[in-house]
Amino acid sequence: MKLDQELNQHGRDIIRTIEVVQSVTKLSTTAVDNFDSNGEELYTPPLNFSMVDNGIFRSGFPDTANFSFLKTLGLRSIVYLCPEPYPEHNMEFLKANRIQLFQFGIEGTKEPFVNIPEDTIREALKVVLDVRNHPLLIHCKRGKHRTGCLVGCLRKIQRWCLTSIFDEYQRFAAAKARVSDQRFMELFDASGFKDIPPSPCSCTKRR
After folding, report:
1. For the CA atoms of 55, 61, 64, 69, what is the dihedral angle to 10 degrees?
2. What are the C-alpha distances in Å from 58 to residues 32, 41, 105, 191?
3. CA–CA distance, 30 with 48 (Å, rounded to integer)
4. Closest Cα to residue 99, out of 67, 126, 123, 124?
5. Element counts in the chain: helices (H) and strands (E)
6. Which of 140, 149, 201, 203 is flagged as catalytic?
7. 139: helix, coil or strand?
8. Which pLDDT value is given to residue 186?
9. Is 140 a catalytic residue?
10. How much is the pLDDT for 1?
11. Cα of 180 vs its chain's centroid, Å
C-alpha cells in the first residue's frame, strides 16, 4: 500500500513537471536563435529540469541551447551552487534578461570526503524563500547533489517527511545518490525558518 502511494505520488510529480514545461513554452513571444528545420522555435530545458514549487525551479547547468526555454520562465534570479566563475555567455544572458545571480560556492567533492557547509545552505535558503526573487532557478553542474541537498532542506522547512525528501533526492541522483547527502538533510535543523506554510507531499496524504 505504501509503495503504491509513493508510486502514485511520483506519477503526479512527473505529470506536474510535464504540465509546467508545456505551459511555460507557450509564454515566450520574443525571437530566439534556436529553430528547427521547419523554422519552428525550439525549447530545450536544462538537464534535470523540474518545478520545485510555485516560482521555484531546479536543473543542471544551463547552456546556450537552454536560453530560449529559460526565457519562458520569466526568471528574476538564479541560485548557483558551484565555486567556479559563471561563464561569460551565461552572464550575458542574465544581463540581457535582468536576472540576478546569487552564487553560493559549494565544492563538488565526493564521498567519503564530503563537507557540506550548512551556513552556506542556510544563506541560499534565505534567497530561495524570498518571494521577491521569484521566479527562481536553482542549479549546480548536474542538478543532483548540491541542488538536491538544497531542495531537500527546503522540503524539511516545508515539513515533508524524510521518506518523501529522500525519494525526491534519489529521483534526480539515481545511481549517484550519496548517503552523506541524505544524512545531511536528515540532520538539518529547519526550526530557524518560521512562518513557512507546509507544502503537500506523499507523507501528508498518508495521515
Report:
1. -30
2. 22, 23, 17, 24
3. 25
4. 67
5. 8, 5
6. 140
7. strand
8. 94
9. yes
10. 52
11. 19
Distance between CA atoms of residues 54 and 161, nearest Å: 20
Estimate to the nearest angstrom the gap between the alpha carbon of 66 and the chain centroid: 15
User: Cis omega before residue 200 (within 30°)?
Assistant: no
The torsion angles phi and psi of 135, rounded to 5 degrees, stand at -65, 145
Say how many C-beta atoms besides its own lie within 10 A of residue 100's C-beta. 13
Helices of type H across 97-197: 118-129, 145-157, 162-173, 179-187
| Per-residue pLDDT at 85 | 95
Three cell numbers written together for 34:
534556436
Ranges of the chain with pLDDT below 70: 1-41, 109-114, 195-207
Nearest alpha-carbon partner for 66 in 83, 37, 87: 87
* HSE (side-chain half, CA atoms, 13 Å) at 58: 26
DSSP string over 32-87: -S-B-TTSPBP--PPTT-EEEETTEEEES---GGGHHHHHHTT-SEEEE--SSPPP
- CA-CA distance, 135 to 99, in Å (whole number)? 10
* Cell reading at 107: 565544492
Q: What is the pLDDT of residue 153?
A: 96
How far apart CA 114 and CA 107 sit, in angstroms, is: 9
**pLDDT for the residue 205:** 46
